Amino acid sequence: MGTEIRRLNVLEGSIDPRPFHQDWQYRLMASDRKTVEFLVEQMAGGGTVSAKAMFGEFGIYCDGKMVALVCDDHLFLKPTIGGRAFAAGAEEAPPYPGAKPFLLIDAEKWDDREWLAEIVRITSQEVPAPKVRTKRKSG
């Protein structure tokens, strides 16, 4: 019963005090394209950075490798040894239900272009290249 009451309060417009990633039934919005464009611009020094829309959210790619997700206007970086060391103390959280934890990059770091570019470069170097898909024969 307590969960149902909290859910009704969220739908009525009151704000749930918990961080967004602690209870996925309270997610209310998708990411804003302007946020993603800003992040891509800030990360550009790390390599060839681009974004791709994925189910209302965005994947961020560096040199053809997916290095991050933007979900609910929060930046989640794929966890790597170098990335964890560079972002010492960064919280880890799943970007969507059922996902493994990613590094949750605090919005205060978004304005530091050099820092973002460097962590994206480090992550891109450690993330494996995407697998090449083979076409299936029809018939």
TrEMBL record:
SUPFAM superfamilies: YgaC/TfoX-N like (SSF159894)
InterPro entries per UniProt: TfoX_N
Domain TfoX N-terminal stretches: 41-123
One Pfam family, short name: TfoX_N
Protein name as it appears in the record: TfoX N-terminal domain-containing protein
Species of origin: Sphingobium xenophagum
